[in-house]
Design goal:
Low-confidence stretches: none
Largest sheet: 14 strands, antiparallel, barrel
Oligomer: single chain
Shape: elongated
Helix content: 25-40%
Mean pLDDT: 94
Strand content: 35-45%
Order of helices and strands: HHHHHHHHEEEEEEEEEEEEEEEEE
Strand order of the largest sheet: 1-2-3-4-5-6-9-10-12-13-14-15-16-17
Number of strands: 17
Length: about 375
């Protein structure tokens, strides 16, 4: 009877009757606590029902109770992946793959899960490695890669007389990405400064490289026209259930009366569903005027937390003298006005599969900055 119940639960899973299967696997677990197939099926049913918190709690008990059994790790990894806890998902899929190398089905699931995990972490080279490994284990050919595009429109304002409108076009193909952007800053409803930029990046197995150039045109002859050039070097690193991404940036800007040389260190770490990014910028201003050179230091820290409905909450803080510098997002602060510390909050809201909205509010010296962006992927 117990064997029949196990078979019936399995048939219900294949037929999509997940609640019935969960109940049957649960009954079998109660009668045979040492039946690993029943425990495994119960995790399978919980994941199919989207009950990821319950699945994580159950899988933690099973992994602790059976430390030398790897068959529960794929199920825990899937629940972590759906909960946007990507570094942990990568860790458990990797464990399942290493410990169940002789199990073709488990290895195939782990390879596919690793491909999804690395894709979510933005690590293309490792993502592609496990896509190919999954294809080799299943005999299903890898689908031909297609370019992916996105377009974003944004608007920001600090006061009624200061506003910025921008458009950004992105193209991704395999390990390459190309970004093009144009923004127009208006003062008292008249165009004051425009900026056009292009960025090209490539992911290699040893490191990621990105180069960019920006052209700024405006009415202030002391500042414009200006040219900005930038290069970035970064690397994805993994330590257990943590993800690290150290990044170096060097930039050179040429203005009519001075040049700027900038060096930045921008590491980030992801733990569970939380990301923390830190930016430290140093710049040297080389003025045409004798004995007028100067240097500046600024810092920024950002914290992102995955929220319900696949939204992401961000908290931001910055301090120091950030004039004439460029941050990690390509934003250039081209002003003679002294910079004040700022506090900000943001919310990323995906909707209708292909769309996302980004809302940002920043407060500095009792002055608020509002930013809104709408993005479509295709």
């Amino acid at each position: 009877m117990q064997a029949d119940l196990l078979s019936l639960a399995y048939s219900n899973m294949l037929a999509g009757n997940y609640e019935a299967a969960k109940s049957q696997y649960g009954s079998l677990r109660e009668h045979e606590p040492s039946n690993l197939a029943a425990h495994e099926g119960y995790l399978w049913a919980l994941n199919a029902l989207g009950k990821y918190r319950e699945s994580l709690a159950e899988s933690a008990k099973l992994i602790n109770g059976y430390p030398y059994t790897a068959q529960f790790h794929n199920y825990r990894a899937y629940a972590l992946l759906q909960s946007r806890r990507y570094p942990e998902a990568r860790y458990y899929y990797r464990y399942a793959l290493d410990k169940q190398a002789q199990n073709p089905l488990a290895s195939s699931i782990a390879n596919e899960g690793l491909a999804y995990s690395y894709d979510a972490l933005g690590d293309y080279t490792k993502h592609r490695r496990y896509v190919n490994a999954h294809a080799a284990s299943t005999g299903i050919p890898v689908a031909r890669q297609k370019p992916e595009f996105s377009t974003a429109l944004s608007y920001s304002a600090t006061k009624p007389e200061k506003a910025t409108i921008s458009i950004r076009q992105t193209a991704n193909y395999a390990s390459w990405h190309l970004n093009m952007a144009y923004e127009d800053f208006s003062l008292n409803k008249e165009s004051f400064r425009s900026a056009a930029s292009v960025t090209l990046g490539k992911q290699f197995s040893i490191a990621n490289i990105e180069v960019s150039a920006m052209m700024l045109e405006g009415k202030d002859e002391r500042v414009y026209p200006a040219r900005q050039y930038c290069g970035k070097l970064s690397k994805s690193l993994y330590a257990g259930k943590l993800y690290f991404a150290p990044q170096l940036m060097a930039a050179y800007a040429q203005y009519p009366r001075f040049d700027i040389q900038q060096l930045s260190f921008m590491p980030s770490v992801r733990w569970r569903d939380i990301s923390i990014a830190y930016q430290a910028h140093y710049s040297y201003m080389d003025n045409e005027t004798v004995n007028a050179d100067s240097s500046r230091i600024s810092q920024q820290i950002e914290l992102y937390k995955a929220m319900p409905l696949r939204t992401t909450l961000g908290l931001h803080y910055g301090q120091g003298d950030g004039r004439w510098m460029m941050d990690n997002n390509g934003v250039v602060v081209d002003t003679f006005n002294a910079q004040k510390p700022y506090y900000a909050a943001s919310l990323l809201i995906p909707f209708l599969t292909r769309f996302s909205a980004y809302l940002y509010y920043q407060l500095s010296n009792n002055t608020g900055l509002y930013y809104a962006s709408l993005k479509v992927n295709y």
